[in-house]
Hints:
- The protein has one domain (about 5-80).
- The chain has four helices and no strands.
- The chain has helices at about 5-25, 35-55, 60-65, 75-80.
- The chain has about 80 residues and is mostly helical.
Amino acid sequence: MFVLVSFSEKCYNELFKQKCLPVLLYGTEACTVKKSHIASLQFVVNSCFAKIFNTRSKIVIEECRFYFNFSAVSDQIAKRA
Length: 81
């Protein structure tokens, strides 16, 4: 699948990755994280991608995350620990 991306989508993605995600993951360094917490955070990330790319398809969201090199929340939490 080929996804056309405008400048604004790239910009939104970088802003989310650099500014919003660290705030969302900040508390995970100090507290124990349950699977339900990880699922909630992943939902937030998926919702942001859905709004940025104007889609509800999980497949498209996963493709966009892959092409923008945006790993899953559980992987990012593991990296931060």
